[in-house]
Amino acid sequence: RTRAPSLYITHSLVMPPSLCIRSLASSAPAQQRLGGRAGSRSLRVLAVASPGPHASAKNSPKGTSVASSTSSSRRDTNVAPARVAITEATETTEAATTTSETTAETPSTSTSSSAASGVVAVDDVLAPVSDDMVQLDMSVRNIVGQRNPMLMAAADQIFGAGGKKIRPAVVFLVSRATMQLHGTSEMNAKHRKLAEIIEMIHTASLVHDDVLDECDLRRGAATVNQKYGTRLAVLAGDFLFAQSSWFLANLDNLEVIKLISRVIADFADGEIAQASSLFDTSITVEQYVDKSFYKTASLIAASCRSAAALSDVSDEVKEACYEYGRALGIAFQIVDDVLDFTQSTETLGKPRGQDLASGNLTAPAIFALQRDAEADGQLLDIIDSEFMEEDSLERALGYVEEFGGLDAARKLAEEYAQKARDSLSVLPDSASKESLNLLVDYVLCRVY
Predict the structure, then answer these.
(1) 125-143 residues labelled b (16+ CB within 10 A) or e (exposed)
(2) pLDDT digit string (tens) for 44-79?
(3) How many C-beta atoms surround the C-beta of residue 370 within 10 A?
């Protein structure tokens, strides 16, 4: 138990994979070997998720990069679970408390504004589900505090830190929008529990990411591991993954279980793909989009399709909802990557250019490298040197803008955003559908 922290990826027969980071470096000898840091980035991958063959192209389309002419590759929501270590877990079930809502939605007389027409306020986007969001916030905090008092002190840090909780909001909006096909906007208890599951999975992934990346700040606030230590951060993430797995199994819907299980395996695939391509200047836009799907879009896409599945709608509607989430998620990730180049540390909540400095080449850098290859290769030389010179990062950020990397990335985000809008055509008009359109505008307006 004096070795460096290891990354354990486990899977149960009934529940989805759970990403658990076990910090084994808390003892004095280990800390001494690791330079006094229990949160070393030295990781040992004991098992790697490997999806089965993509037998069906009908379910869960992953899509392709807009910037390429390659054919679409599709993810199968019915593939066999990832072949990884099998573990068993027993959990105590918790009763889900829900509030039935019977008022039908009435679409607003206003139409969705485009990103170019001005700033879209997140409060406007979330207006149809604002009460649902309040209830969700209380529920997830209680789940942490009631079951594990030791984690109660960190609950505000885990579920706070300025997050807008877009992912569970999307679950609520898609749930209400698809229920309109049955003549009502009322959600059922499973819709609400799904939103809690999605928020817990997303939050757990962020907590573990901050441990892996040794981040001190997220959204301008101290991370859980910085404020409470690596040990509590790892335990908090483990608990959230385990609890979400138990809630997921109790939804008693095999389609939803398979969808969300695939997502947690995708998280691992995305992290491994990113770790294996650091400072790789040969990375293509297509590979970047795949990585963005695994890390961000997979969860949003599966959330949307799962919400539609719990509304008992047709396969056509479920697939359209999946495509909306996939395209929205990729656009969201591209925008985040653009902001890493353009926003100040105060606004972004982390140092500007952090992704590039760590060797994680995103859309702006990839597009700029394409132009740089036609010039004198200055940007390529800086990245290959891994920013050894004192001012090399600032020069690289300047080259990315000079070579049009930011504009090309914005255009790519706009193309995926339009795909998301087009996918909503299968849904009847409602306030929730309007908010789903507004959400696309909100994502885009952040980069203008």
Answers:
(1) bbebbeebbebbeebbbeb
(2) 232 333 333 333 333 443 444 434 333 333 333 333
(3) 16
